[in-house]
Amino acid sequence: MRRALKDLRPEVVLNFIGYDVADLAADFEIFKDSIRQYLFISSTTVYARPAQKLPFTEDAPQGNPWWDYAQKKIACEQWLRERFKADGFPVTIVRPSHTYSRLWIPNPISSASYSFAARLENHKPVFVPDDGENPWTLTAASDFAVGLAGLVGNEKAIGEAFHITSDEALTWNQIYAEIAAALGVESPQIFKIPTEFVCEHAPQLIGNLKGDKSHPGVFDNSKIKGFVPDFKCAKPFRVGVRESVNWLRAHPEQRVMNPQVDAMIETVLAAWEKGRK
Hints:
single chain, 277 residues, alpha/beta, 4-stranded parallel sheet, 3-stranded mixed sheet, 43% helix
């Protein structure tokens, strides 16, 4: 990394992939004496669940015992704040929530694969955590980009943390309905299964659900709007998900299938059906 950057003198560095403090420490040593701003992409998963108050603000209590991903982001944020206070390292912390692009059909099970959408297309059942009435925020990457770009080089943002999320909060039932409609699927088979039951039979979802998506995800965006007046989420989910579906159908090579996701859904549904019988 030092060799690759030896002839570069960036003014601003954005770290989208830092998960361990060691990742940040390397950046700090390389950039501490040269850059004007370091933007760290953290996550809204850092907030304590269940929320003490909604919507979440940037100063909401942190702590997520369910998900190592969130715990690592918390540790990274703490380390960077220490570097800001002790060394004047010019950090800005950005906390996205569930952000999607045309490569994703976002859902609480596995947004990064097409397996969930494929099940709906093939008229196979899926499940939603609990009663499906949990409000959740989905943000189009194109909208997120406006807020992020407005922070780049913004000296007033140094030492601050920001949400960059949509103001649109839909229930998971509404999200599933929009996905099904975008896929052209009528009357999808959706089972409402308690989070505890899901995690008992699919423990790999504990962090994803107990640490995030089974709790309300509603965020106050007034701070980013104050710093970046151009920030406005112009793309509602019903528009964004249709763009994703249309693009993935036109580019089938980009549809990532994950057999493990499909098997996990089948395991949970089979256990639920057995219990009901």
